[in-house]
Design goal:
Elements (H helix, E strand, L loop, with lengths): L1 E9 L6 E6 L4 E4 L2 E5 L1 H7 L2 H12 L3 H10 L6 E7 L1 H12 L11 E4 L9 E2 L1 H19 L1 H12 L8 H9 L15 E3 L2 E2 L5 E10 L11 E6 L11 E7 L17 H23 L6 H4 L6 E3 L4 E3 L1 H6 E5 L17 E3 L4 E3 L4 E8 L6 E5 L2 E9 L1
Helix pairs in contact: 2-3, 5-7, 5-8, 6-7
């Protein structure tokens, strides 16, 4: 097994959720931080007189007063984590704290980032990175055998009850893989460890959907997500470490039954090729008027987006990976070129390209200048091979 160690830099905001939603009674706002606390622990340690006051407020349906009592009882030991909070989210969530019965305002909950249950620190799951790598590699071999794969996959996409089998068929045929047992996986040769994130590497910010014309979707609701700070926020140093483990020797083992190459260079080229294509397509479709275009993604010279191509710095071309991970990556980055098919729920018809993007406002300098950026773009630069 060979271990490849990378320095990881989010180019734009990234959100990977743990399924938890923070309601107003789950947090307090102190300065420029949102503090999530353990409500059960606060109630457990509450003095009897304070508990009586809390119960009286609840009996009289004075929920705002009850929440104030609860928050004032929070001690350091009750805090699960402290998260930076952006100005727009802070203003909006303070309204939620002050209006606990307003059903519209209560929808403005906070979607939290996945965290280690023991340490409380956020981390980027290795499965998110491996899934992005998997899509790129399948796309790589699909383009090499596109005519035959279209014959195998397109009939499945045309029938709703068969659509769920389309990816398995595509992956099997594109990788020339033989499924002999249910537990077999052609990507079991690739392992990606969960990546611990630095302290204060996330922030709660407001996000919103926009149409292709750049206008906010009037049907979209206000949402708040804990997301990774990125190069678009002016974060140039630090980053975090990602480790990918690849069993290249087993890739040539007849028992594995993967008929395509699964070496590091193939994986790396597949990721660069696929995701630069998706980056350019998204730029042309949604952000063509951004000035300058490369600043839209906060790449600062590592990746430059021209009108008709993406220029990747030599250091990235030789040892880097470009990926799109997490929520709001959109189906175009989760499906392969020339066989892409999503579904428009409102129009009830298949689509090949999305009609909206979800954006987050990033602040790149101390003067407060900001850019509205899409989610999910991650850069990996190889630092060690062990």
């Amino acid at each position: 097994m060979t271990v490849y160690r990378f320095r990881a830099t989010p180019l734009t905001p990234i959100h990977v959720g743990d399924g938890n939603t923070l309601a107003p009674e789950d947090y307090l706002i102190e300065g420029d931080h949102l503090i999530q606390f353990n409500r059960a622990a606060v109630l457990r340690d509450m003095k009897s007189e304070v508990r009586r006051q809390l119960e009286e407020r609840l009996d009289r349906n004075e929920f705002q007063a009850a929440q104030e009592i609860l928050r004032k009882s929070v001690q350091a030991a009750h805090q699960r984590c402290r998260i930076q909070i952006g100005a727009e989210s802070k203003a909006d969530l303070l309204k939620a704290v002050g209006n606990p019965l307003d059903p519209v305002i209560r929808q403005r909950a906070v979607q939290s980032f996945v965290r280690n249950p023991l340490t409380g620190r956020p981390y980027l799951p290795g499965s998110a990175i491996k899934g992005a790598v998997r899509t790129a590699v399948v796309n790589h071999y699909t383009q090499k055998h596109l005519p035959s794969l279209k014959q195998a996959v397109l009939p499945l996409l045309g029938h709703a009850h068969n659509r769920k089998n389309a990816w398995k068929t595509l992956e099997t045929e594109s990788l020339n893989f033989e499924f002999r047992q249910l537990q077999e996986d052609p990507f079991r040769l690739v392992k990606v460890a969960d990546a611990d994130l630095p302290t204060d590497s996330t922030r709660v910010d407001k996000v919103w959907p926009v149409k292709r014309d750049g206008k906010e979707d009037p049907k979209g609701i206000q949402m708040h997500f804990e997301r990774l700070l990125s190069r678009g926020d002016g974060i140039n140093g630090g980053g975090f470490t990602v480790e990918l483990e690849l069993d290249e020797q087993a890739g040539g083992d007849e028992r594995v039954k993967v008929g395509r190459r699964m070496d590091f260079e193939t994986i790396r080229r597949a990721c660069i090729g696929f995701y630069t294509g998706r980056l350019l397509a998204e730029q042309q479709r949604f952000f063509a008027d951004a000035q300058p275009p490369e600043a839209t993604f906060g790449a600062q010279g590592l990746i430059k987006i021209n009108l008709d191509k993406v220029l990747v710095a030599k250091s990235i071309r030789e040892r880097g990976l470009l990926l799109r991970v997490g929520r709001f990556s959109h189906f175009e980055s989760l499906s392969v070129d020339h066989l892409r098919q999503g579904w428009n729920i409102q129009a009830r018809r298949p689509i090949e390209e999305g009609s909206s993007r979800t954006l987050c406002r990033c602040r790149s300098d101390v003067a407060g200048a900001s850019m509205a950026l899409p989610f999910g773009w991650l850069l990996l630069e190889l630092t060690e091979r062990l």
